[in-house]
Amino acid sequence: MMKHAAMEIESSDKGSLGPGLSPLSETLWREKTNTELIGDVSARLTWKDLTVTVTLSTAGETQNVLEGLTGYAEPGTFTALMGPSGSGKSTLLDALSGRLAANAFLSGTVLLNGRKANLSFGTAAYVTQDDNLIGTLTVRETISYSAQLRLPDKMSPSDKEALVESTIVAMGLQDCADTVIGNWHLRGISGGEKRRVSIALEILMRPRLLFLDEPTSGLDSASAFFVTQTLRALARDGRTVIASIHQPSSEVFELFDQLYLLSGGKTVYFGHASAAYEAINLNSAAFFAQAGFPCPALRNPSDHFLRCINSDFDKVKATLKGSMKLRFEASDDPLDKITTAEAIRTLNEYYRTSQHSYAAIQKVDDISKIKGTVLDAGGSQASFFRQSYTLTKRSLINMSRDFGYYWLRLVIYIVVTICIGTIYLNIGTVGNKTQFPLEKTPLTEK
Ligand SMILES: Nc1ncnc2c1ncn2[C@@H]1O[C@H](COP(=O)(O)OP(=O)(O)OP(=O)(O)O)[C@@H](O)[C@H]1O
Predict the structure, then answer these.
(1) In this structure, which residue's CA is closest to atom 29 in ligand 1?
(2) At a CB cut-off of 8 Å and minimum separation 6, what does 36 contact?
(3) Probe target for ligand 1 pocket from 89, 97, 216, 309, with the most ligand atoms within 8 Å of CB
(4) What is the pTM assigned to this prediction?
(5) Which end of the chain has fewer CB atoms at under 10 Å, N or C?
(6) H helix runs in 237-330, sequence order
């Protein structure tokens, strides 16, 4: 079984359906598409002049959350969306993955493999910030039940098992595969491992495009590095990976291929992550240095970018100035001479006319011309009976293992039953016994 799993990892990129598909994934897609050869299934995503407007009240007040964004994500690359809180990272992910709220309206063009596509389950996977996992199940059981619920009935049990094992290996979860996830009374796997289980559940269906909202939030630096490294490995396997990341360490930042930097819903920078702070060849210069905000030698690049574009720093400075807690000393830092709002305006303007912006527009036009296959798994492929059986089994196992859910409830029900049952204990069979208190009332005595 493990041999089969390892084979899948090793043989990726050699599948006959196109680059990045292993024999097992191929079986999965062939079941769905029922075609002999469906060509290149890599996901090339482009967005042009993307604007998202939200309606704020019933009076029809509107606000632009994103304004005129243009960019692309290619197979084999890991694109990081960065920006201060409220800059529009999650909204951009939602807009690209077709999950915008009902009060949000999108204008502009989003193309997948050169076509307007409804990005549904299977084509693209979306990993949210929260890990919705069942605490009493082990990692292997969690992934296995998910496989039973979603994979086609026609797929043999050994193939399903191999797919589960290969997913465990791909996410580096072998060491904790038989450990429970954990809950309030059950010590389980770590936060980083939980995040990797959530990603494992999404890559089970072998999506070609993976969106992740803050996959490293709440993790310590080592766990964040491990999760990001795993995402990079998934990208290197031919997938297109786009993730919003809040405040990466310098080690994590080095793992990004492309960086999309947002502030107030506008693009501050889009291009090679390293080109933002260093010259990547003799003909180029670091973007931030050219724009007048060079990254100091000992500063983490991502901290520097966020320092430049987070307008909350203006409020902090004003508050500290007002309370006389800040002594301003002479410094060479250009950010001390202007407000962050001015720095953001300068960077927005500089990016708009930079070679990075022109290169991105050119690349979007080039990529949009490549017409690839859009794979659409269209939801679970398991039959109704298979799903019912799996859900019932999973629920029974969860109840029997969950002390709070099952055993504590059972004890409470028994206690309540005894309490209600003993109200009538030894009451006898004489009817007037129940009228005893009435006999003692003054009215009755008269
Ligand atoms: N559907 C909506 N209705 C009203 N306002 C919205 C909606 N979606 C987003 N916004 C607003 O748009 C702005 C950007 O939100 P978004 O969640 O995309 O930011 P973010 O960069 O992901 O922030 P964080 O890092 O804190 O998650 C916020 O001010 C938010 O309140």
Answers:
(1) 86
(2) none
(3) 89
(4) 0.78
(5) C
(6) 250-253, 287-290, 301-309, 312-322
pLDDT, tens digit only, all 446 positions of the chain? 444 433 333 333 433 444 444 444 555 545 544 444 445 567 889 999 999 999 887 677 888 899 999 999 999 999 999 999 888 999 999 999 888 888 889 999 898 888 776 655 456 888 888 888 998 899 999 999 999 998 888 888 898 999 999 999 888 898 999 999 988 777 889 888 998 899 999 888 878 889 999 988 878 888 889 889 988 988 888 889 999 998 888 889 999 999 999 998 999 999 998 888 877 665 666 888 888 888 887 788 888 888 888 877 777 777 766 665 555 555 666 666 678 888 888 889 989 988 889 999 999 999 888 776 665 555 677 889 999 999 999 999 988 888 777 788 889 999 999 999 888 887 777 766 555 555 555 555 44
Where exactly are the structural domains of the chain?
43-123+207-370, 402-445
| Global ipTM | 0.96
Architecture label for domain 43-123+207-370: 3-Layer(aba) Sandwich (3.40)
Q: Which atom of ligand 1 is closest in space to residue 102's alpha carbon?
A: 1
**Ligand 1 center to residue 130 CA distance, Å?**
17
Distance between CA atoms of 219 and 438, rounded to whole angstroms?
A: 68
